[in-house]
Amino acid sequence: MFARPWRHVVLAVTLTAWPLLPAGAHAQSPPGSLGITVYNGAVPFLLDNGLLYLAGSVDGSPQLSFVVDTGAAASSLDPDVAHAANYNAGATASLLVARRIFPQQSFSLAPTAYINALSGHPTAGVLGQPQFTRYSLAVDFDRKQAALLSPEICPSSATRLPLVSAGGLPFVEGTIALPGGGQATGLFLVDTAQPGPGIVLASGFVAAHPGLAAGPTLQRPATANAPAATLVRLQELQLGPLTLHAPIAELEAGGPAAGNPRLAGVLGLEALSRFNFVLNQRYASLYVEPSQRRHEPFEADMSGILLTASALASSADHKLVVAAVTPGSPAAEAHVQPGDILVRMEDKPLAAANLGSVAAALRSAPGAIVHLDLERNGKPERVTLRLKRML
């Protein structure tokens, strides 16, 4: 579920309009026989600025890049990609992904320009629930591999978290510790395509538990691809016997204050990547084991620069462009401006494909000195930032 123009509407529908359903007749786990990090048919994935990509093809097309989106009810293709593959809306095609063939796959048509701007990576389309209800999705962040497994195969050594189905989408229960004592328990959508801090808290859930917004906060300015948002540092999030310490959450903007108080929000990839996991919806199970990132602290941007990958009128290439600057941040103090083009960092040339690595570098080391070469109105500018933890 992307931070797209209609993203908050989709979140509101997911959290308020669909009734909660029981896990179903297959709630019992199949016989355990496989570890998460040992499975056949695994393929490499690309992780780019909080989005997970798998390679695939449509009706024998050249290799395409698809975003893995467990929060999407349908799979989709960019209209230009569909045209090149001779695919028409309402038709079916053969989809090959992760060594699995879906012989009669239908796609909705949806532009992916907003995804490209978020990741800096060309995106052909989105893989949604049609793939992940037929097969289990296994993701090994340590080996950077993923697989689509038979649901009858499950890891025997991992922790099982029960899933609840709502609107055909997978939710897992989590408990947040509140400042001053108390807890807030609700259901989180397991959403591998939610960029940003990794957790989104629904407006209705926050209204029911005002203490959720009582921690340290950071105001993130609006960009063309995302509205302004409030980020908050939580004490901890408990998922079954596992705890995420001091995670960062985004408070949903513009959602309804009323709604099912059990439905808490979204658990995105920044949180999920603390585990290697198998999402087995047939047996209502999310199997998790700690990844190498398990104890890595959650960090927000420390520069104040919000980047996007944009095509410029003067060039066919996509560039890294400053979409917004956080007031009072190191970037604001260095007079970085929206519209500046980021050309080099520490004298290394940059392109749109570097968006994820640059964003990671700008939230990794408080106190670090970073030298940036910018282009502003066709003229070079060099700025020096001292990163600082703002949340």
Quick summary:
By secondary structure, the chain is mostly beta strands. It has helices at residues 7-16, 79-84, 113-119, 129-132, 203-208, 269-272, 330-333, 355-361, and strands at residues 20-21, 32-34, 43-44, 46-48, 51-58, 64-68, 76-77, 93-97, 100-105, 108-109, 125-127, 136-140, 145-149, 154-155, 159-166, 169-177, 183-190, 199-201, 217-220, 229-233, 236-239, 242-245, 248-251, 263-267, 275-280, 285-290, 305-311, 318-325, 341-345, 348-349, 369-376, 379-386.
Terminal CA distance: 25 Å
Secondary structural class = mainly beta
Low-confidence segments, ≥5 residues, pLDDT <50? Answer: 1-34
Number of strand segments = 32
Description:
- The protein has 8 helices and 32 strands.
- The protein has a 16-stranded mixed β-sheet that branches. Strands 4, 5, 6, 7, 8, 9, 10 and 11 form an 8-stranded mixed β-sheet that branches.
- The protein is globular.
- The protein folds into 3 domains: 106 residues, Cathepsin D, subunit A, domain 1 (Beta Barrel); 137 residues, Acid Proteases (Cathepsin D, subunit A, domain 1, Beta Barrel); 82 residues, Pdz3 Domain (Roll), CATH 2.30.42.
